[in-house]
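# nightly structure sweep
# worker-07 picked up a monomer target from the shared queue
# config: single-sequence mode, recycle default, output format = structure tokens
# input follows
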Amino acid sequence: MAELYIFGELCHASEYEEPNLFCRWSVQFGSCWKVIEGHSEGQSSASTARVERRSCFSTPIDLHLASRGIQGWPKLHVEVFALNSFNNYWPVGYGFAYLPSQPGLHRVRIPTWKVSSPKFFDTVREKFHTGGFTVAKSDIVFSGIERYKLLTKSAGAVEFELMLIFRNFAENGVELH
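# output follows
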């Protein structure tokens, strides 16, 4: 089987209005793929110290996948949450990006969006950091099946630094260009 090793870290989130952030991440993949070792999802700690609208996480990622083909190529899915002084949290960003298809060191920047509301009261509530809107099912973010029905606006971005190691792809008839 072809194998993919993913080492790296969730570096930071930038350009968000909210001051206290944490991030949940997951690696999503198709039925041809399986996890050999490591965790395919995780969560950062809350980052309260911000420098120039950037929240640093430095959360490690270590994952080993095996595959029979490239169908369902892995993608990174992120959900960014804001946290207030009462330990209430709400989503402020959703996004995803496919993993690069070349081995080596990569910086992956994932732009995010958040659910918006046309109602005035809802925008005031969000402005004063007391809540936001969530998606009913998280797979809407990366599948796109019903995403067109949502009213959204752009949010910040999340950045990963990843080292990808490919093993036995050519030997198993999997060609990457």
